[in-house]
Structures are given as structure tokens and as C-alpha cells.
């Protein structure tokens, strides 16, 4: 479709301005559909950027530039009008200044390339909860990924009409081509210091430059569905969260919907697609990364998955740990930074087997001896630790039938968690909504390879798993959560809100081994949560919250009763240290925007712990 055929006058003007600034060789409005997807892939194959996989139908492998393998938090900006609105956890630059700098970078940045204008819907097209974005990009890789991750095309323009609201999103890889120059197999991107992932919350705009990687370039995902949507949610009274959504059915056929907020690469996709080891239980997937939730007339929170695909972590995924993800990614899938086997298949660490043949090509394009097992020494991985698959959600064998229901699904429980080698128990139920908000606010986790950072492996506070994704002041975000509880109270519907739990699959023993087997065995915790929501007598009250009564979670094979006891008890000394750190280093960061209610919770837990 041509730009002059756009019916929305504001949109047409915005595209014309972008064309004048970025000077692409040609412009194309994406219509969606298989032939457009195939054409995008074909362009990348011809440019030497993608390899067709002989072993997986209609699937392709891309290798990015080594500098462009994950989100870049220190190049990510929340450019609100006032610095204080961005808060202490976001990078801030004056929006006018940032636009000036980036306009300089965008000038001529699409020379030698085609500009694609992608109309996309986050959420089912036309749903009341859905939001429309328009992404301008010079990357056919981005167009193809957006086709899988969002709903793209003319049908979105039809809903937008001639004056509808959309979030304008600029994206350029920042690598113009000189006359006759081609990518020639080299992933286009800009040097690190020229990369910018910028958000303008007051005007609801996104400007991304210099990176082609997922979270930096597929702008519907973290940029729109979390950073901008969190601001819309604050203003409109709903929640935009970094949460999976799952449907849990017990052996009697009763259903509850549960969400889980864990930081990047901490197990959302795996929990969302879990195959229970507990007989008779069933888990189905509604979403694996992002949840948008609105209060219904009945006082319950209804969640939709705004995405249409999975952008999942490849390493660690195998037929035992996540069979459903392997199936989802068995065809029509884009792989990024995985290894390539001699027979034309992907390979990664912990895929469950060594690589066939004599050699593999690693994520940097180097030929290496084929690994005999599925492990590689640290630093010598064949797949990048943040290698990803982009797979259509509808291909997932355990996708819930209601996953595209525009009304959303009513949530019974929120799980918060992270990678904590010590202190934090396997599962712990908050005593109340406000206690749950307190627990969400102090969440900590080891930093993973999902972000380019020298902190990888260190524990950092990641409140609500939203540290890199909250588009405004985190103190105000805590207040927003408190207000959801207050409003429910005022309406006499507090009992309709989800119950809040804290989980930790990542406790380690003295030898550094995981004490809990995780994956399918996490169903034991889900079952306990399910029963807790029904008020079953399966918990004991402790100073930190409600923990499982001994015997109410059966130990999985290989886990001794002593280990089970350790996982489900309160480490008083560890908690005293934890709380002291919150008091000294965490809460003071938020200054006078830190809600008093959470300081009251801090006082109360100190008292219970005997501080
Ligand atoms: P993002 O897509 O970055 O938001 O990640 P995510 O939260 O969806 O994480 P994902 O489920 O992809 O898991 C990340 C890594 O953690 C993978 O290597 C998994 O194999 C591993 N993992 C997931 N669940 C568990 C678990 O229960 N125990 C252990 N030990 N590892 C897990
Ligand atoms: C994450 O980092 O939380 C992801 C991958 O889900 S990305 O799309 O890059 O944000
Ligand atoms: Mn994520």
C-alpha cells in the first residue's frame, strides 16, 4: 500500500515528515499477510542476513552484530517533560534535547533502504483493551518479527479510521547504505554510543535508533506495551505489567487464571507453558511476557495478552524443560543468535543433546567442533545466552482457547519472583493486598543475559519485575498499585482482587546447585496457590507471610524432606539483612514519592522479625 492511500490525515503527515527526515529510497505501508512476510524474509536471505533451516519448515536463523544481542538499559530513556517524573530508576534527558540529538541521527539514516510503515495492534484487533501503534522501520527483520509478535496490517488501519489514536514509533537501524553498498551478510546497526531507545511519555511517542535487537526494535513489546502503556494505565486506572498469564485447571476441572511477574529470563515463558508433574492438573497459556489488566464491573481484574507471539529465550529450552515451546517453535519461526548444525538445524546450550556432524557454526558465525553434550564452557557458548526464538502463539500446543478473548480472563493470583540463591522461600503468600504490594516493591533478582550490563549475575532490586519497563516514577507506580487496592476496598470488592504470592525457583545449596528442580515441578506450587485462593487450611502464618504447612507441598523426586523444610521456612537472619537493605538502600531512592503505606509495611515486618 502507498502512503498517499492512508486515510488518517495525521498519520499521513507524520509519515511524510519521517520520509523527508530519513530519506529512504522507497516507502511501503505494510498490509500484513503471508506473502508480505515471505517477501521480508526473502529480502533478508538475499542480503545474507538469514539462513533457511533445512530441518524446520519455513524457519530462519539470523546472527546479529555482537554488540546488538540484548536490551541496552543504559541507552534507554524516559524523556518526560520533568526529570522528576522519570524517577530515580530511569535515564532521563530533556525531551527537546533528546529529539534534537536523535533528529541529527535520523537525518538520512534510511538512505539506500526501504522505509516500512507497520500498522499494528497490541491486543485483538478492535478490542476495547487493545491499542494501536504505527512503527516506521528500515529493517525487514523487524517487519517479519512484528508480523509474528503483533497483529499487523490493513485491518488495523480500518479500525484506526481517519482520526483514531495511535502510538507513533520511529525505528531505524542507523546504518544508511551508500550508492551500490549492500549489507552483505553484516547485521546493520549503529555503534553502542549512538544507540537510543527513547520514550516520550507525555506525548506517547517512541523513538528508537541504532539497534535491531528484539526489545530495542520490536517497539510494540517493551516500549509500547510496557513503558508507554504503564503511563496510560496510571492515567486510566488499569495495569500494564511484565507478567505471564496462565490458565490452571485442577483435577476436578475447576479453573483459575494466574499471572506471574518475574524479571527477564527468570522463567515466565517456562511457567506459562508448564506441563504439570502433578497428576490431574493442567496448565494452558494465555500469555508469556506481558499482561494488560482492567477492573471489571464485578470487581475482578481481567487480563489480556497484548502480543500474538513468543520472543522466547532459547538456551535451556528443550523437550523436557519446555516441550510446548519446542513445539511452538518447530515451524514458521525466526531464530536469532542460535548455533547452526551441519544438517541445517538450530542448536543451543541445554537443548537436550549434542550437535550432529563434525562442526557447528556459532552465533558469531565461526565454525566450531560439534559439541558432544549440550553444555559449553562459560564464554564459549555456541548460542548466545540471550539467543531467542520468535514463534506464533497459535502454534503452541497448550495455548488456551480464550487467549484472544477481547474481554480478558479474570485473575485469581499474582505471583512475584526472581532469581534468589538464598533467603527467599519457595512460596510465600502476602497477608493482604498492601503486604503484597510491599513484597512486589522489594523484589530482587540476579541480572540475566537479557540485558547488556556488567551487573550480570549480581542481585539487584527489580520491583514488580518492572525496573527496566516502568515509564514513570517508580514511587508513583507503587502508589498506583496501592490505589487499586484502596478503590476495591471503597467499592466493598477487596475480596475480588487477586491474592498475591512470592515464589523462588532458584535457591542454591552450598555447592551452587539448584535446590528445587523447577520447570514441571513448579506445578506443586501452583496447586498450593490454587488451594490457597480457595481458602484451604494449607498454610502457617510467619513474620514474612503465609508459608506452606508441612506436608501440603509434596517433595518432588530427588528433593529430601530436609531440603523441602529449608525451602519452606523463614531464614530470620537472612530476612533481617534483606529488610535492612530495603530500609537503607532501596526505599530512600524514591524520596518523598515513596508511599507512606509501604514504610508502614516496612515498620511492621521489622517488628515481626524482631529488628
Ligand atoms: P524474558 O523473555 O526475558 O522475559 O524471560 P522469561 O521470564 O520468559 O524466562 P524463560 O521462561 O525464557 O526462562 C529463562 C531461563 O530460565 C531459561 O534458560 C530457562 O530454562 C530457565 N528457567 C525457567 N524456569 C526455570 C525453573 O523453574 N528453574 C530453573 N532452574 N531454571 C528455569
Ligand atoms: C525481556 O528482556 O524481558 C524480554 C526480551 O522479554 S525483550 O523483548 O528484548 O525485552
Ligand atoms: Mn520479558
Automatic annotation (TrEMBL):
Task: Give an example GO biological process.
Answer: cellular response to glucose stimulus
Q: Where in the cell is it found?
A: Cytoplasm
Q: Which residues bind Mn(2+)?
A: 222, 242, 289
Q: Which pathway or pathways does this protein act in? A: Carbohydrate biosynthesis; gluconeogenesis
Organism's domain of life?
A: Bacteria
- Catalytic activity annotated for this protein? oxaloacetate + GTP = phosphoenolpyruvate + GDP + CO2
Q: Which GO terms describe its molecular function?
A: GTP binding; kinase activity; manganese ion binding; phosphoenolpyruvate carboxykinase (GTP) activity
Tell me the residue numbers annotated for binding substrate: 71, 213-215, 264, 386-388
Tell me the cofactors it needs.
Mn(2+)
Top-tier EC class: lyase
What positions constitute the catalytic site?
A: 266
Q: What Enzyme Commission number(s) apply to this enzyme?
A: 4.1.1.32
Location of the region described as Disordered in the Swiss-Prot/TrEMBL record: 363-382
Which residues participate in GTP binding? 265-270, 388, 419, 519-522
Task: Write out the transmembrane intervals.
Answer: none
- Record flagged with keyword Metal-binding: yes
Q: Where is the Phosphoenolpyruvate carboxykinase C-terminal P-loop domain?
A: 238-608
Limits of the Phosphoenolpyruvate carboxykinase GTP-utilising N-terminal domain: 13-234
- What keywords tag this UniProt record? Cytoplasm, Decarboxylase, Gluconeogenesis, GTP-binding, Kinase, Lyase, Manganese, Metal-binding, Nucleotide-binding, Pyruvate, Transferase
Cofactor: how bound: Binds 1 Mn(2+) ion per subunit.
Primary localization: cytoplasm
Return the HAMAP family for the record: PEPCK_GTP (MF_00452)
Describe the task this protein carries out: Catalyzes the conversion of oxaloacetate (OAA) to phosphoenolpyruvate (PEP), the rate-limiting step in the metabolic pathway that produces glucose from lactate and other precursors derived from the citric acid cycle.
Q: How does it assemble?
A: Monomer.
The protein's name: Phosphoenolpyruvate carboxykinase [GTP]
Protein source organism: Leadbettera azotonutricia (strain ATCC BAA-888 / DSM 13862 / ZAS-9)
